[in-house]
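Recall that a protein's primary structure is simply its ordered list of amino acids. Everything else, from secondary elements to tertiary packing, is in principle encoded there. The following example makes that idea concrete.
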Amino acid sequence: MRKWIVVAAVLLVVVGAAAFLWSRGGAENPRPATFRAEPTTAHYAPIASRAVDPAPLTVAEMFPRGSVTAGGVTLAGQGTEALTDCASAVWGSAEQAVAGCTQALRARYATGDGKVLGQFVIFNLPDSAAADKLVTALGDGGFVRPAPGTPENFDGSRGWAQARALGHYVTVSWVGPVRDGGATDLTYPQLAVDSPSLLIQRRLVR
């Protein structure tokens, strides 16, 4: 009897560890420790679908400057890219949630001392319902992948992230410290990396 109790206890530990690793995404695809999700609102009704906002996004439109700043903290741009395969930028349940996505624009950032790294991604989805679905998936069983070129010491599992549905778009900002970089306040880096989200406001008045 005791043998079976021990076996059952071991199985519970293994299953629990597997569930924890899945929820965290694993070392290759980490999930942030802090995640905030925002569904779209009536404010973005003028761009609730791609049918009424058909012009593709451009890298110049979303990332007009080489850096982002908030609260006196600046992160310099480390590269941008435009993707047509949106599924390649996500993992887990988010892969199904990007169905109908036509493009994803992505940028990487780093503080001057290299202790905080970040990335911003925007997805162009069919409509606001699809955008809300992706935001939900990003918080439940899926997330964005670290962009190619992200240093291996990026500790995304200790990071902060925010996903917003803005009409038929979804923006994801994610910042994290580097491993062995000591305690770091991510408040202003998060605000800085999320700042490109504000540029979508221009599409409301086109």
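The chain is about 25% helix and 30% strand. Confidence is low (pLDDT under 50) at residues 1-24.
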